[in-house]
Amino acid sequence: MQFSELGLHANILKAIEATGYTEATQVQAEAVPAALAGADLLVSSQTGSGKTAAFLLPSLHRLVEPSTAQGNGPRVLVLAPTRELAQQVEKAARTYGNELRRLRTASLVGGAPYGPQLKQLSQPVDVVVATPGRLMDHMERGRIDFSRLEVLVLDEADRMLDMGFIDDIEAIVAKTPTTRQTLLFSATLDGVVGKLARQLTRDPQRIEVAAAKADKPQIEQRLHFTDDHEHKSRLLDHWLRDAEMNQAVVFTATKRSAEELTDNLRDQGHSADALHGDMPQNKRNRTIQRLREGRTRVLVATDVAARGIDVAGVTHVINFDAPRQAEDYVHRIGRTGRAGRSGIAVTLAHHREKHLVREIERYTGQPLQAEVVPGLEPKARPPRTEQRPRQGQGYGGQGYGGQGKPWGARKEGAGGGNNWSDRPARPQGGFKKDGYAKPYGERAEGGFKREGRPNGDAQPRSDWNNKPRSEWRDKPYGLAGDAQPRSFDRNAGNAPPKRAERGADPARRDDSWKSPAEFSRPRKAYAGAKPAGKPTASKPAAKRSNRWD
Predict the structure, then answer these.
(1) Residue 226: beta bridge partners?
(2) Where do the H-state alpha helices sit in 372-509?
(3) Which of 243, 459, 533, 543 falls 20 to 30 Å from 215 in CA-CA distance?
């Protein structure tokens, strides 16, 4: 269908002809007339199907007539998940509305300075393309109003929900007029996206556009299995040195991996730049501009940062890290083969990531055939040495195979080099010797041998069981060989004398408890005695206090 048959304004058709497009795509042919009729739309289409023009063209058609409401707020609001996609949509709005009189557009994205954005919002603006986070910042500060809003567009709604913007979207929609027209575009309309669509739209018209079969062969998909990170790096270098490659976008799973891989590629002589969410907006803009100008040959990017990149010179897309979601795979390979061009998409996957490859095949409906580069073949995986027993073989209990081994029995050959099945069964018993058990209570030959006892003779229990309590302790110092030890019983005859008795009769004093060193130690002098030697001058007596009188 031609664009002239869609019912668009003559100035918009003139701008479309200047871009070189004359025939509308399937999603444009179905969505544009329905949007011009004023209905809410739920459109499901894949990347590269022309959905940007599908919602911009009918929205710009509304701007031909002046607004009757007062204010400086936008008449068309477009929400996009990433900065690059928002800037791409804003650029397309200026391109398709080039022939419209006094069309003002604004791009409100994070990472950009607030000054230019505040200057754009200070005067009447027609189209605002924003990311949810930055738009919420302006709304909280009261710098934007939606009194003139006529059309609300959610581009790639599924991606915005995956990024956690559900709360911001609901807060933004709550501030918009209820008379607005809502256009929701997403890769899928099921699950959470369908629930959000039911909340935002009124009697929507559902349009589902499948990828055209003629467009599928435009992107040649290839798969390589890798052994480790080094093997994956050598395969990447092989593809980057391909003579047919003009520019390539290499996808990694994390921002850190993007930076490290970029440094490695630069060391190998490649003209590479990194693109991820932690970079400031002005640096991201310069990186994309160098890619468009051809000064950057390899762009290493993450999934979120690469959304919206539309560069005609990209011929190869290489998934250095396999995507964790099948939807991300479609968006990745969509960076090449755009506008009817051909491209090559290469996926480098580890052997443990086969489940990700199967998910991609189920989502796209196309099988990915594994290919091998001569000289870079993956190593053959070693065969499994241990195999589970089959039905009816070996042990395994009932239900697993075989009759099941008896309780207490061991498999033949178990236990290293010893064959436990040849040993006699061990009965319930105690001490074990030579493989046989002794009954409890029976002592082995030689008794329980201990060091210091000849021939292992154990002392009979009856010899020391009835000894007096005093003999359980060590003998005191200074006690002769056969002398009786002191008893700790005060009533015993050999008990040591009391403290008073020891002081009164030195002859009865018992020094047996002293050590030999204490006998030669000099006796301490009395505290009140005067030391012998040079006499000292006597001190005057202290005056007695009357307190004690």
Answers:
(1) 350
(2) 461-464, 499-504
(3) 243
**432-433 and 436-437 as β-strands: parallel, antiparallel, unpaired?**
antiparallel
| Reported pTM | 0.53
pLDDT of residue 413: 46
Answer for the pair 157, 187: CB distance below 8 angstroms, yes or no. Answer: no
Q: How far apart are CA 416 and CA 58, in angstroms?
A: 79
Task: Please state, as a whole number, how many other Cβ atoms lie within 10 Å of the Cβ of residue 315.
Answer: 18
pLDDT above 80: residue 338 = no
Q: Summarize pLDDT for 460-508 with one digit per residue, the tens.
A: 554 555 555 555 555 455 444 445 555 555 555 555 555 544 444 555 5
Question: 515, 477 in Cβ contact below 8 A?
Answer: yes
- Token pair in block for residue 485: 């030890």
CA distances from 420 to 49, 208, 386, 406, 527 (A): 71, 70, 21, 15, 82
| pLDDT tens figures, 276-304 | 878 887 888 888 888 888 889 999 998 87
CA distances (Å), 186 to each of 40, 93, 206, 331, 536, in order? 14, 19, 11, 12, 112
- The C-alpha torsion from 158 through 160 and 164 to 168, rounded to 10°, is -120
pLDDT value of position 94: 92
Q: Taking Cα atoms as reference points, which of 298, 274, 270, 277 lies closest to residue 286?
A: 274
Strand order in the sheet with 247-251: 219-226, 343-350, 314-319, 247-251, 298-301, 272-275
Q: How far apart are CA 516 and CA 519, in angstroms?
A: 6
Residues sharing a CB contact under 8 Å with residue 280, sequence separation 6 or more, in sequence order: 111
Predicted pLDDT of residue 530: 53
How many angstroms separate the CA atoms of 363 and 328, rounded? 11
Query: Do residues 540 and 547 lie in contact, with contact meaning Cβ atoms separated by under 8 Å?
Result: no
* Residue whose structure tokens are 């190998």: 268
3-state helix, strand, coil in the chain (%, to 5): 35, 15, 50
Total length of the chain: 549
Closest alpha carbon to 308 in 21, 51, 20, 8: 51
- What Cα–Cα distance (Å) separates residue 396 from each residue in 12, 215, 258, 412? 77, 55, 50, 14
What 3-state DSSP class applies to 543? Answer: coil
- Report yes or no: 449 and 456 within 8 Å, Cβ to Cβ: yes
**What's residue 387's pLDDT?**
47
| Per-residue model confidence as pLDDT tens digits over 388-440 | 444 444 444 444 444 445 555 555 444 444 444 444 555 444 444 444 455 55
What is the Cα–Cα distance from 295 to 308, expressed in whole angstroms?
A: 19
Question: What distance in Å separates the CA atoms of residue 298 and residue 314, rounded to the nearest whole number?
Answer: 9
Asked if 132 and 152 touch (Cβ cutoff 8 Å), the reply is: no
CA distance linking residue 119 with residue 134, whole number of Å: 15
For 130-185, write each residue's pLDDT tens digit: 999 899 999 998 889 899 999 999 998 888 887 778 889 999 999 999 999 999 98
Of 368, 330, 334, 331, nearest to 348 by C-alpha is: 368
